[in-house]
Amino acid sequence: MRVNLLFGFLGSGKTTLARRLLKEGGGDRKLAVIVNEFGEVGIDGAILEGKDIDMVELTSGCLCCTLKGSLLNAVEELNAKKDIDVVVIEATGVAEPEEMIETFSEPTFRDHYEIGPMVSVIDIPKFTRLREMLGPFYEAQVINADVLVLNKIDLASAEELETARRAVVELNDTAELLYTEQCDLNVEEILAGKTSQKMVSYLAREDHAAAGDHHDHDHNHDHDHRHAPAQSFVLDSGGDTSRNALEAYFDGLPENVWRVKGFTHIDGTPALVQYTMGQLVVDETAPRKNHHMVFIGPDMDQSSIESGFGELFNREASDQAAQ
User: Fold this and answer.
1) pLDDT per residue as tens digits for the range 60-84
2) Domain 231-322 sits in which CATH superfamily?
């Protein structure tokens, strides 16, 4: 079975890419997806649901640390179904690629699974700001990629695109660069039979170290997201609000709210709301029973953020619409 890993900071377009892979990458392949959410409520899984695929959703943690065992178990369970050819793993935006590479380099896995190219999605308009803000953590998502999807080029100026391209190449001059709008790409670039060269290089270093002095080979890879500290909380977004009221609320959020995503009703219409560092996107979606929004960011003042959020929604209007 083949495993494909998708990385990218919050709001970069990973879920959009996962949807495209699942929609267009089937053919003779049987695909499954593992979605990792950094929060108590899964939103990306809800975005992907309704497709004829096997899906495993892992919430409230990161695949590279607290959910590592759950990830390995999920892969094993999907492999036991025998008919699955490819598993697409969408890692949370705060996952560290090095830890994921280490996870899949373990002997029990390296002999049974083929690792496809490591793919990182880069939000081009926000690249410089994110690099300055997150430093080595963000750069690691570039350095450890076999394929870099330079996404949202339609929202970037020529200067922003060239600045980001030069910086990306300086960090990783071996990765294949794909320029996209809304992650619109040839899925075969990712799902075809290429093997991750980053994984091959890592295994070669591990084998070389293992052949030397075992006492000098340090496997202490513990980490605590010190380069990208983030917390999350969930708020009830059941009810109905107006587009103007919603935009005014998000315009007033502090800068340390990196990401908000979830479902609600806007002007009577079911909607998917996605906010990333000042950018709000609202899309019409199918009706659903539960409505929540997940907030992600460092050192957030939940009480301050929550104040006024509930006042956005007319609960009675929503209840009447449901009847």
Assistant:
1) 444 344 445 567 777 888 888 767 8
2) CobW-like, C-terminal domain (3.30.1220.10)
